[in-house]
Amino acid sequence: MKILVTGFDPFSTDKINPAFETVKRLPDSIADATILKLEIPTAFKRCGEVVHQEIVSAHPDYVLNVGQAGGRFGITPERIAINLDDGRIADNDNYRPINQPIEADGATAYFTQLPVNAMTRAIRKEGLPSSISLSAGTYVCNHIMYEVQYRRATEFPELKAGFMHIPFLPTQVVNRPNMPSQSLDDDICGVVEAIKTMVEMDGRSDVDSIE
Amino acid sequence: MKILVTGFDPFSTDKINPAFETVKRLPDSIADATILKLEIPTAFKRCGEVVHQEIVSAHPDYVLNVGQAGGRFGITPERIAINLDDGRIADNDNYRPINQPIEADGATAYFTQLPVNAMTRAIRKEGLPSSISLSAGTYVCNHIMYEVQYRRATEFPELKAGFMHIPFLPTQVVNRPNMPSQSLDDDICGVVEAIKTMVEMDGRSDVDSIE
Amino acid sequence: MKILVTGFDPFSTDKINPAFETVKRLPDSIADATILKLEIPTAFKRCGEVVHQEIVSAHPDYVLNVGQAGGRFGITPERIAINLDDGRIADNDNYRPINQPIEADGATAYFTQLPVNAMTRAIRKEGLPSSISLSAGTYVCNHIMYEVQYRRATEFPELKAGFMHIPFLPTQVVNRPNMPSQSLDDDICGVVEAIKTMVEMDGRSDVDSIE
Amino acid sequence: MKILVTGFDPFSTDKINPAFETVKRLPDSIADATILKLEIPTAFKRCGEVVHQEIVSAHPDYVLNVGQAGGRFGITPERIAINLDDGRIADNDNYRPINQPIEADGATAYFTQLPVNAMTRAIRKEGLPSSISLSAGTYVCNHIMYEVQYRRATEFPELKAGFMHIPFLPTQVVNRPNMPSQSLDDDICGVVEAIKTMVEMDGRSDVDSIE
């Protein structure tokens, strides 16, 4: 099994992004699955094509996109991507879409194929906070999650894909009072557990809720 | 123009629900539109039919469902409803769905037809905090928003519909430390402004983002 | 009985301060006590003398200073004032003390003489969130609370005095995401209840804790 | 130089306390100072005497008490201890004082002798969030901080002492939604930096504020 794991590069005022910091430190193999790691640009118009090309050339079974969600208290697998770009700030190409659909002929939304309930439970079992998120926002994180789902719907029907948000790193909150953070070691631990669960649950359903 | 505004009844440990408390105090007419007010049950299996019957009998041009979102800091119009029931707690019929689709043949999600950007801006102009929400959750609030959209898609193509969450009332947070609240007067003021905006924007597009 | 109630004027980027907005709207008499209302400057070096002169000329039995605490979720009577000025920002005279004692020969701290447990309970009984605070900070609020206590210790042994913090007004949080607020009506209601309780408890002890 | 560092044992529903978990993992020597480590009971009536005996027998130059502050976002050195026991919950001896002075003949409050500004700055320099706290509460944490200061004032005039609060561990917030946490490695790193700073600043003043 091959799993493509992507992480965004730094954006806005931050010089570091926990997403690719975590992704680049993942082992090359988790639960017998090969892990392909890719840094992708925080850019609405470019990130989709970068991932698309990697899917075309590497034929992964799964795509897991990882992004930063400043303000969240734990790792949050996303359940759904919506057909909307609406940037509160400009991206790394200085592009800021306002209330734009991502794909004119795309669905309003796509659910992930990842076992988010089981993933969340597995991360908690490691002693780390985690919960399912119902919104990946309307910035580049939702954009890439949506784009991969759209390509799945139109091009790669066998692909399974999804997105996970991770909190700020401690160093990012030194000058942001009362902002939660999580250490890089715990980010890595949580993402590894989530991937293990994806592999173990492959072909099985994920029906139980988590509180 | 006729606008049906609904509010849920109290649920869980709360003896009061700011939603219907607000709705029942709305004026009978706002910006020349007639306001129809309806209390609906916090019950997955019943709330949809109650609203459906009212749409059939009263022929409203708009449906605005209002619900409580404990923990939010202001009024939050919802942008999208998703095809998922997943209750953290049981409803007033003691029913707790786990990871169930709402309608087997429904879309994954529906966007609201309400001008949520303009509504949010109007509430802020009154000096009240407001922002667009990207998730109505997976409890009864999302359920009714989804159900009305599903009926719109299948039965009432002219209908415009949406959902607004309002915070706890102050009395509800007396024993909930560090929980935000909003006074009933401010709830009413905010919902009236939102409805005024719906009427004024009728037939116009709502393209600008709000921060 | 005479009660002097003060409220600070606006400071920093805010054009309004809920403290004097509330104080100036108090009735002139509460539970048979005469209410003297005074706006005081948000200025370390001037506020103490303004209050001192009013005590000298009006001979109040109680002094209640009211100030804004942005970020708090309810009305918070303060238990203690400490001998420290340490401004995160400059005051309205553009003065910013760093780690300075307020009075070289003052005590490290003074407890309030107000019945803060009973006051908190009374505010809650009105359906408003309230809790005792253990720190008035090191800005002008703590400064005036300390100054009045210092004058009490050295000049007015019969005086009873204390401080209450109140949250932002809703209008102040429109552009401050995820900040709690409280309406002006609820501020007034809460301060009136607290003063009623001060009058009723006069001469009695205030021993019970509140949770 | 000898530094006594104490950490509380677990209390209430928690099976672990980050305080002694951190303290017991400190190196035996930091910046040439000898580190003495002591677990102390979360018990109002016993913790003071346990520390007192250790001061008498080991003659430390500094005492640093460490405790858990659930809900805080980083390491917070405390500036002041107040003469008040007021437990929201019972301690490990099932004792719950309500509004009691700690020492009938003690001062209302004592400032710490530790260089809290410099300590906070040093922790931040390591990439960890930290700020000075103005209240150690009225539970066992404030109690031990006050007790050591009281003994200093009456018995050990050369002693320098203070208190640091550290956040929940990640494992403690798995079932506490939206609660901040900090990893044990980061707790240890932060406490080591703080102690280094205490040693380096020994005999120097600590005048600068920190924001």
TrEMBL record, chains A, B, C, D:
A Gene Ontology molecular function term of the record: pyroglutamyl-peptidase activity
UniProt xrefs under Pfam families: Peptidase_C15
Protein localization: Cytoplasm
Main localization of the protein described in the UniProt heading: cytoplasm
SUPFAM superfamilies recorded: Pyrrolidone carboxyl peptidase (pyroglutamate aminopeptidase) (SSF53182)
Annotated keywords: Cytoplasm, Hydrolase, Protease, Thiol protease
Active site positions: E78, C141, H165
Catalysis performed (reactions): Release of an N-terminal pyroglutamyl group from a polypeptide, the second amino acid generally not being Pro
Subunit structure as annotated in this protein's UniProt entry: Homotetramer.
Record-linked NCBIfam families: PRK13197.1, pyro_pdase
Function (record text): Removes 5-oxoproline from various penultimate amino acid residues except L-proline.
Assigned protein family: Belongs to the peptidase C15 family.
Protein name, per record: Pyrrolidone-carboxylate peptidase
Originating species: Furfurilactobacillus milii
